[in-house]
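User: Before I run my own analysis I want an independent prediction to cross-check against. Here's the chain; please return only the structure tokens and, at the end, one sentence I can use as a sanity check.
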Amino acid sequence: MTDIATRAPRGVAATGGRRRRSVGPRAGTIVAFLTPFFLPFVLFYLVPVGYAIWQSFLVVRRTGGQYGTSYTTFGGFEQYVQVFQNAEFRASVGRIALFGIVQVPIMLFIALIMALLLDTPLLKLKSFFRIAAFMPYAVPGVIAAIMWSYLYSPQLSPVVDLLKDIGLQPDFLGPGAVLWSAANVSTWLWTGYNMLIMFSALQSIPQELYEAAKLDGASNWTIAWQIKVPIIAPSIILTTVFSIIGTLQLYAEPAVLRQISSNISSTYTPNMLAYAVASGNNYQQAAAVSVVIAVITFVLSFGFMRLTSKKAGL
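Assistant: Structure tokens:
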């Protein structure tokens, strides 16, 4: 009797009757598709982040007094201790926290109202209003801040002149108002972007839900707040996380307004502080500030996402 193994196809006998699958070409295809993403990601993201973290643990020492030589050595958490002892850093974090607590809810509420209005069948010219609402996002942040700085300037603004004509004395660049002037620029820039995310989520809701609710006697107001808003809760959470990250990265708006207002210092926000420290050639301290900002951003955004996702049952 002929041996079965000698008649079996090559590779079948060694695998107990099963033909082995070749994974080489498939794995090579996956690597070929992923390499264009991972290679720049590693080179231009992970490597700079790792280098910044390493720099944050270094300190510059001097030998021989004022005119001696300097050298860089490992200092542990010394830079981080100096960051948290820095009164300007604490003030900038408190300022940006106040900014986010007030500006983010207002901006997202306006974006939600706009999205709900665009989703209602009663509104005409939806395409026009959708493009008009999204248009400010197409303007670069620096350009938007320059545009609004003309409207805030007491010498150039037609808005200020108009308010003065009716007996008001506005000071958009005063110490108590300049933070909210920057918040207004951010709101103008990002409301349309957040609105579009929410509106896209609303478009994915089946129309049958609305028809069933209307048959049960629900009004448009009830449908909006008891059906639409709960369904698009993940999109609202997502836009909130984006807004938290953007708030902690605030730089362009106050940096531009600083050119026309003495009430904005070079350390007004954490990002401005990091830039100012780096401009003074203290790169290790600037790296420590940047790492602290990144950690705070991660903790707040990830913590908010976990908390709200659990409450929403996501």
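Sanity check: The chain is about 70% helix and 5% strand.
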